[in-house]
Design brief:
The chain is mainly alpha-helical and 348 residues long. It is 70% helix and 1% strand. The protein has two domains: 112 residues, no CATH class; 217 residues, Farnesyl Diphosphate Synthase (Orthogonal Bundle).
C-alpha cells in the first residue's frame, strides 16, 4: 500500500466512505497523503464496529467484541459481526460503518503487516473499557479518565503509531503518552457536547463525586430514558438547573486540562518525513491533529461560557470547517496555533 498512484482508486473509495462513517474526521484529514488516509480510516472503521457492539449492549457483548478482535488478528471477516452491525446500526454513521464494513475489511487485509498489527492491537486495547460494567456508574474523575483512556486514549496511541510509520519521531514514548492524553481530552469533549442526549438515553458519564460536590443525585438528572422535565433543562429558575450548569462548567474545565497536553502533542509532532516524497505527511498529520484540538478547545470554551448550549444538538461541524480553512495556512507556525488555542482558554 505504499504506491499512492496505484492506490488512487482505493483512496477515492475510502474517501467517499469516510464521510458516511464520520462527520468530523474526513474534514480534518483532507490534507493527508492517500496511503495514510487509507490507514487512518481503516482503523476508524474497525473501531466504529466495536462501538456499534458496545452501544447496543447485547447479552453476549464481550463475546462479540472479542470475536471482532480475533477476526482482525486472523484477517478473516466474521459473518456474525457483519450480521450484528447491519441489524443493529441505528444512526447514519453506524449505518455507514455497517455498509462499508466488507470493503474496509478487504482493505485491512492488504495493508502492511505492521499497520495491521497497529489496527488490531488498538481495537483489542479498547475492550476492557467496553466490558467493564463499573463504567456505567462512574464514581470519580479518575475513573472517568480511565474509561476515556480505554475508548479514546488507546486510539490516540494507535494513531500516533500510524503517524510514526511516515514521520521521524525520536521521542516516541513521550509522543505515545501525549497522544493517549489527547485522546482522553477529545473523549471528554465528546461526552460534554453529547451530555443532554446521553442523559435522555439513560447514559451518564458524570462522576458521582462531582454530583455530590454540587449536592445533586443522579435521579436529579434523569429518570429512565427521560429528562426530568420539571427540573432539568426546562425551568430557568430551578436551583437544580443552576447546579447542573455548574457541573457542565466543571466538566468543560476538566477537559481543557487534558487539552493542554493535547497542545503539547500537536506542537511536538516532528515536521521531518521518514522518506523522500512529494507528499507531506507531516503537513497532513499536523493539520489533522491541530484542527481537532482547536475545535475541541473552542467547544469546551463555548459550552463553559454558555452551558445551555447543551440543551440543543451541538455540532462542531461549522467549527471544523472554520479551522479546516485556517489551519492549512498556519500549520508550521507554533506561535499562531498556540495563540488561537489560548484565546479559547477557560478563565474562572
Amino acid at each position: 500500500m505504499s504506491d499512492l498512484i496505484a492506490n488512487h482508486e482505493i483512496y477515492n473509495s475510502v474517501r467517499r466512505a469516510s464521510f458516511d462513517i464520520s462527520m468530523m474526521y474526513p474534514l480534518a484529514a483532507g490534507k493527508m497523503p492517500e496511503d495514510l488516509y487509507i490507514k487512518v480510516f481503516t482503523l476508524y472503521e474497525m473501531l466504529r464496529v466495536a462501538d456499534i457492539i458496545e452501544d447496543n449492549k447485547p447479552h453476549n457483548k464481550e463475546e462479540l467484541l472479542r470475536t471482532h478482535s480475533k477476526s482482525l488478528y486472523e484477517e478473516r471477516i466474521n459473518s456474525d459481526i457483519d450480521r450484528f452491525i447491519t441489524t443493529n446500526a441505528s444512526n447514519n454513521q453506524e449505518k455507514g460503518a455497517a455498509k462499508h464494513y466488507t470493503m474496509f475489511f478487504d482493505i485491512f487485509t492488504k495493508l502492511p503487516d505492521k499497520t495491521k498489527e497497529i489496527i488490531a492491537s488498538t481495537n483489542n486495547a479498547m475492550i476492557p473499557g467496553m466490558i467493564n460494567e463499573s463504567y456505567n456508574n462512574i464514581q470519580t474523575w479518575n475513573q472517568q479518565s480511565e474509561y476515556a483512556g480505554y475508548v479514546a486514549g488507546e486510539v490516540g496511541i494507535g494513531l500516533t503509531r500510524l503517524f510514526a510509520e511516515h514521520i521521524i519521531m525520536n521521542n516516541i514514548e513521550s509522543m505515545l503518552y501525549k497522544g493517549y492524553l489527547q485522546g482522553i481530552a477529545l473523549q471528554k469533549i465528546h461526552m460534554l457536547k453529547d451530555l443532554r442526549a446521553d442523559i435522555s438515553e439513560g447514559k451518564n458519564y458524570i462522576p458521582e463525586e462531582l454530583l455530590k460536590y454540587h449536592n445533586l443525585k443522579r435521579e436529579d438528572l434523569f429518570t429512565v430514558h427521560k429528562i426530568d422535565k420539571d427540573e432539568l433543562f426546562q425551568n430557568p429558575n430551578s436551583e437544580k438547573l443552576k447546579r447542573q450548569y455548574n457541573i457542565i462548567r466543571d466538566i468543560a474545565s476538566n477537559a481543557q486540562n487534558f487539552l493542554t497536553t493535547g497542545l503539547e502533542y500537536v506542537l511536538d509532532i516532528p515536521l521531518y518525513e521518514k522518506h523522500d516524497t512529494k507528499y507531506s505527511y507531516a503537513k497532513g498529520i499536523r493539520i489533522f491533529t491541530s484542527s481537532l484540538l482547536l475545535v475541541a478547545q473552542e467547544i469546551s470554551y463555548n459550552i463553559y461560557n454558555k452551558p445551555e448550549l447543551t440543551e440543543d444538538k451541538y455540532s462542531p461541524k461549522s467549527l471544523l470547517i472554520k479551522y479546516g480553512a485556517l489551519v492549512p495556512l498556519i500549520w508550521k507556525d507554533d506561535k499562531k496555533i498556540t495563540s488561537i488555542f489560548k484565546s479559547k482558554t477557560i478563565e474562572k
